[in-house]
Design brief:
CATH architecture of the largest domain: 4-Layer Sandwich
CATH topology of the largest domain: Phosphatase 2c, domain 1
CATH class of the largest domain: Alpha Beta
Region (Disordered): 1-29
Strand content: 15-25%
Number of domains: 4
InterPro entries: ANTAR (IPR005561), Bact_Sigma-Reg (IPR052016), GAF-like_dom_sf (IPR029016), PAS (IPR000014), PAS-assoc_C (IPR000700), PAS-like_dom_sf (IPR035965), PAS_fold_3 (IPR013655), PPM-type-like_dom_sf (IPR036457)
Oligomer: single chain
Domain PAC: 502-554
Structural class: alpha+beta
Domain ANTAR: 37-98
CATH superfamily of the largest domain: PPM-type phosphatase domain
Biased composition (Pro residues): 12-26
C-alpha cells in the first residue's frame, strides 16, 4: 500500500491536518511515532477480525442449536461436516448460516407488514415476501441485459404482493436528464409520454437522484411533484431509491402504490435498496476494480488520457476504489497530465498510481474536494467552480492558493482539471479592468528610438483604430483645442526640458469630430547618467467629471440666486409686518379701558407670519378689539394680514355687530384674498355699560381674569375665515366689572407640538391665575412663561376695565 505523502489538498476551510506517516527526509521522531501507531492499529484490526470470526462461528452454532434442537457439541460437529462436504471453510459456512437466518427474519417482518396493511390475504409459505424477493432477484439476474424484463419481474415477484401497482426504472444521463429504461403496470401511452425527462424538471425520481437516498412520499398529490402517471393515482404513495453500484448512480427505481403509503419498516427499505442495486447492475455491467482486482481488469482510460494530454490546464484522471462490499472508499490517480502542477510543488510521478486521499489527505474535509468528486462520480453531473480556495499541506504547514476547478465523469473514470491562479496575471487583469473602468490609457515613449507604446484603452480615448500610429507628446498640441496651447506648452517644458513630472487638462479633438476633456499625466525616465531617454504616463477621460463640475457650478449659482431671492422676500415681509405690527407698540388709549399690547415676532425671518391685533375707537363710541392669524409664513401671509386687518377696521365703521363683521370679513377672505385662510376674534366694548359683545372664527377664545380667578370664554361655534363663501357666526355678550382683565392672544402663545391646544390653553389659564402687578407686568410674565415651541409670531392684548 502506498504510503501517504506529506502534502494534501482540500477546499477552504481547511480541516485538521492529517499526521505525516512517512516524511521524505528520513525518519523523524514524529515519523517513527506515526509508524508505530499504524503498526499497532493493524494488530488491533487483525485481533478484532479474529474475534469477529470466532463470534460468527459461535453465532452459527447457536442458530443450529435452535433449528436442530441439538447440543452445542452436535452443532459443532454439524458445522464441521458441512464444511467437509462443501469444501468451504467453517467461517464461510457460518456466514451462510447467519445470512440465511437473517433473511428469514426479514421475511417474517415483511410478512407481518403485509398482513398488517391488508394488501395480501393470509401468508402462505409459498407466497412469503422473502421468497418472492428472492424469486425477483433470480429473475433479474437471468434478464440482466433487459431492463424491461427486470421491471416486470420486479413488479410480479416482489413488489406486487406489497400492494405496489407499477414500477419504473429510470436511467440518469450526465446532463441531468432521465430516460425511462423499463416499466411495468403503467399504461403504454403514459410510458411513451415519459420516455425522456429533460434536465431541471422536478420529479420524484429527480428528488431521489438529487438527495442520493431513498425517498418515500405517502401521498404524491400532497407533495406537488409531477411524475409518471401522477394523474392516474394522484392520492397514491411513491417510493424512489437511487440505483447504483460501486459509488455510481446509474438511475432510479420508482415504485407506485394506488393508495396512500403507510410508513415502511427498515427491513422493507433495505430490501428495496437491494433490488435497486440489482437494477443498477442490469443498466451497467462495468464494475470498478476493488481491492485485490488485477491491474489488467481496471477500467481502460487510454482515450481519456489522450484527452487530458491535449488540455492546456493540469488534469488528473481518477478511477473509483471499492471495498469488499462494493462501497466507494477512495479514488486512484490513474494519470496526471504532462502539464500537471501540484499545489504543493510535487512532480506528477510522485502522485501517479497513488490513492487520492493518500496523496491529498486534507481533501476529505467536510464539503471538500473529495465530496465534490464523489458526487460527480455518483450522479454524472459536472462541477465547475471559479476562484476556489485550496489548502495544501507542506511539512504540516497549510498553504492556501486559488484555483478554477472542473470535475466531470467519463464512463467509470473522473477527470479533474484545475488551474492555479497566477498572481502576476491576476494583478495584470485587475489593472486592465481598473483602467477600463477609470477610462485611463497608458503610454511609454522612447525619446532615443522614437518608439511609442500605447495600450488598447488609449487608442479608444483618441478614437483611433488599434493599428494606427500613436501620437507623440510633441505633436499633442495639434490635436488639442487652441485655447489649451499655453497650458500644453508649460506641460511639455516641465516634462521634456525640466525633467519633472507634470499634468495638464486639455480638450482633445478627435478625428471623428468628438471633443473629449482629457487629463494627461507624465513623468520622465532617466538613465544611469541622469539623461532623459523615455516618458511614461497616462491619459484619463475626465469628460464626465468636467460636465459634472459644470452642472454643479450652475446648480450652485441657481441655489445662490434662489437663496438671495428668498432672503429678499423674507426681508420685505418682515419690514411690512414691522411697519404695521411693531414689536414694541405704544400703549393704546380708550375710554374706560387700559389697553396694553405685546407682540413677539418669529425667531427666524423665514417664519414671518400673519398675526395681527387691532384696537380702535369707533365713531359710535364703541371700542373694537381684535386679534387674528393668517395661515402660513412669508410675504403672502404678511400681505394677507394687512388686507384682513384693514378690511375689518373699515367694516367696523358701519356699526355692525362682531358676528356680522366676521361674516363680511369671511366674504372678503374667500373672494378677494387669493388662497388665504385665517382665524380671528372680534369684540365690541361699550364703555357706558361695560358690556362686550364678541364672536370667533376658528380662533382661541379670550380669557377673563376676575378677582384673581381666570376663566376662558365658552368655545362658541365659528368656522375659520376663507374656508366657505357664506358663513354665519354667533356672538355672545359678557359684562365686565371694574378691575377685570381680559386677555386676547394668538396661538403662538400656547401652541406646542407635543400637546393639544386644550391642554396648552389650560396652562395659560393657570399662568394667568398668579397674575400680580400692573397690566404690563402681567403680559410680560405671560410671554416669559409661555411653553410654545413652534417659533411662531405671538400677539397678546390685555384689556383692564377702569
Amino acid at each position: 500500500m502506498t504510503a501517504a505523502p506529506r502534502q494534501g489538498l482540500t477546499p477552504h476551510p481547511d480541516p485538521t491536518p492529517y499526521p505525516d506517516p512517512t516524511p521524505h527526509r528520513g525518519p523523524t521522531p514524529l515519523g517513527r511515532l506515526v509508524a508505530t501507531v499504524e503498526r499497532l492499529r493493524g494488530e488491533v484490526r487483525a485481533a478484532h477480525a479474529a474475534a469477529d470470526g470466532r463470534a460468527l462461528v459461535e453465532l452459527a452454532k447457536g442458530i443450529l442449536i435452535g433449528q436442530l434442537s441439538c447440543t452445542p457439541a452436535a452443532a459443532a460437529r454439524q458445522l464441521d461436516e458441512l464444511s467437509r462436504e462443501t469444501g468451504l471453510s467453517p467461517l464461510d459456512i457460518a456466514a451462510d448460516i447467519v445470512n440465511q437466518a437473517a433473511r428469514d427474519h426479514v421475511s417474517e417482518v415483511a410478512a407481518e407488514f403485509v398482513e398488517r396493511t391488508g394488501t395480501l390475504g393470509p401468508a402462505k409459505p409459498s407466497t412469503r415476501v422473502a421468497v418472492r424477493l428472492r424469486t425477483a432477484e433470480s429473475g433479474m439476474l437471468a434478464a440482466a441485459d433487459d431492463t424491461q424484463a427486470v421491471a416486470e419481474s420486479l413488479l410480479t415477484n416482489a413488489l406486487g404482493p406489497l400492494g405496489a401497482i407499477a414500477v419504473a426504472v429510470w436511467t440518469a444521463a450526465p446532463d441531468g436528464s432521465l430516460a425511462l429504461a423499463g416499466y411495468a403496470g403503467f399504461p403504454p401511452g403514459e410510458a411513451a409520454r415519459w420516455r425522456h425527462v429533460p434536465p431541471g424538471v422536478s420529479t420524484v425520481a429527480r428528488l431521489a437522484l438529487s438527495e442520493r437516498r431513498l425517498v418515500t412520499l405517502p401521498r404524491l398529490q400532497r407533495e406537488g411533484l409531477p411524475s409518471i402517471a401522477h394523474l392516474h393515482w394522484p392520492d397514491g404513495g411513491r417510493m424512489a431509491v437511487p440505483a447504483g453500484t460501486g459509488g455510481r448512480i446509474h438511475g432510479v427505481l420508482e415504485i407506485c402504490w394506488p393508495q396512500p403509503l403507510a410508513p415502511q419498516p427498515p427491513q422493507i427499505e433495505r430490501q428495496v435498496e437491494a433490488l435497486a442495486e440489482l437494477c443498477a447492475r442490469t443498466m451497467d455491467t462495468a464494475s470498478p476494480a476493488g481491492p485485490g482486482v488485477p491491474e489488467a481488469l481496471l477500467p481502460d482510460v487510454s482515450e481519456l488520457t489522450d484527452l487530458a494530454e491535449g488540455l492546456h490546464d493540469p488534469a488528473v484522471i481518477l478511477t473509483p476504489v471499492l471495498d469488499l462490499e462494493g462501497r466507494l472508499t477512495d479514488f486512484r490517480i490513474r494519470h496526471a497530465s504532462s502539464r500537471f502542477v501540484d499545489p504543493a510543488g510535487r512532480q506528477r510521478t510522485d502522485v501517479n498510481g497513488a490513492l487520492l486521499l493518500e496523496a491529498y489527505p486534507t481533501a476529505a474535509g467536510e464539503n471538500g474536494l473529495f465530496d465534490v468528486i464523489e458526487r460527480v462520480h455518483a450522479t454524472g453531473e459536472p462541477f465547475r467552480a471559479e476562484r476556489m480556495s485550496l489548502t495544501a499541506l507542506v511539512d504540516q504547514i497549510p498553504l492556501t492558493s486559488v484555483a478554477d476547478i472542473s470535475v466531470s465523469r467519463h464512463g467509470t473514470a473522473v477527470l479533474l482539471i484545475w488551474r492555479i491562479e497566477d498572481e502576476t496575471a491576476r494583478l495584470a487583469d485587475l489593472l486592465q479592468h481598473a483602467q477600463r473602468l477609470g477610462r485611463i490609457g497608458g503610454f511609454e515613449e522612447n525619446l532615443v528610438t522614437g518608439g511609442i507604446t500605447w495600450n488598447a484603452q488609449l487608442y479608444a480615448l483618441h478614437g483611433l483604430p488599434a493599428g494606427a500610429p500613436p501620437v507623440p507628446l510633441r505633436e499633442l498640441p495639434g490635436y488639442a483645442h487652441p485655447d489649451d496651447s499655453a497650458a500644453l506648452d508649460r506641460f511639455l517644458r516641465a516634462v521634456l526640458r525640466h525633467r519633472s513630472p507634470a499634468s495638464v487638462d486639455l480638450r482633445l479633438r478627435r478625428s471623428d469630430g468628438i471633443t473629449r476633456h482629457i487629463r494627461v499625466v507624465a513623468e520622465p525616465v532617466l538613465d544611469a547618467d541622469r539623461r532623459l531617454y523615455a516618458v511614461r504616463g497616462a491619459y484619463q477621460d475626465i469628460s464626465a467629471q468636467h460636465w459634472t463640475e459644470v452642472a454643479l457650478a450652475a446648480t450652485r449659482d441657481q441655489l445662490a440666486h434662489t437663496a438671495a431671492e428668498s432672503a429678499e422676500r423674507n426681508r420685505l415681509a418682515l419690514q411690512l409686518q414691522h411697519a404695521i405690527m411693531p414689536p414694541t407698540p405704544p400703549a393704546v388709549e380708550a375710554p374706560g379701558l387700559r389697553v396694553a399690547v405685546r407682540y413677539r415676532p418669529a425667531e427666524s425671518e423665514s417664519l414671518v407670519g400673519g398675526d395681527w391685533y387691532d384696537t380702535v375707537v369707533l365713531p359710535s363710541g364703541l371700542v373694537m378689539l381684535s386679534v387674528g392669524d393668517v395661515a402660513g409664513h412669508g410675504i403672502e401671509a404678511a400681505t394677507g394680514m394687512v388686507v384682513l386687518r384693514n378690511a375689518l377696521r373699515g367694516l367696523a365703521v358701519t356699526g355692525a355687530g362682531p358676528a356680522q363683521l366676521l361674516s363680511w370679513l369671511n366674504t372678503v377672505t374667500h373672494h378677494l384674498a387669493k388662497n388665504v385662510t385665517a382665524t380671528a376674534v372680534c369684540g365690541l366694548f361699550d364703555p357706558r355699560t361695560r358690556v362686550m359683545r364678541w364672536a370667533r372664527a376658528g380662533h382661541l377664545p379670550p380669557v377673563l381674569v376676575r378677582g384673581g380667578e381666570p376663566e376662558a370664554f365658552p368655545l362658541i361655534e365659528g368656522l375659520l375665515l376663507g374656508a366657505l363663501p357664506d358663513v354665519t357666526y354667533i356672538e355672545r355678550e359678557v359684562r365686565l366689572e371694574p378691575d377685570d382683565t381680559l386677555l386676547m392672544f394668538t396661538d403662538g402663545l400656547v401652541e406646542r407640538r407635543d400637546s393639544s391646544v386644550e391642554d396648552s390653553l389650560l396652562h395659560l389659564v393657570d399662568a394667568a391665575a398668579s397674575g400680580v402687578g400692573d397690566l404690563d407686568e402681567q403680559l410680560d410674565r405671560l410671554l416669559a412663561e409661555s411653553r410654545s415651541d413652534t417659533d411662531d409670531d405671538t400677539c397678546v392684548i390685555g384689556i383692564q376695565v377702569g
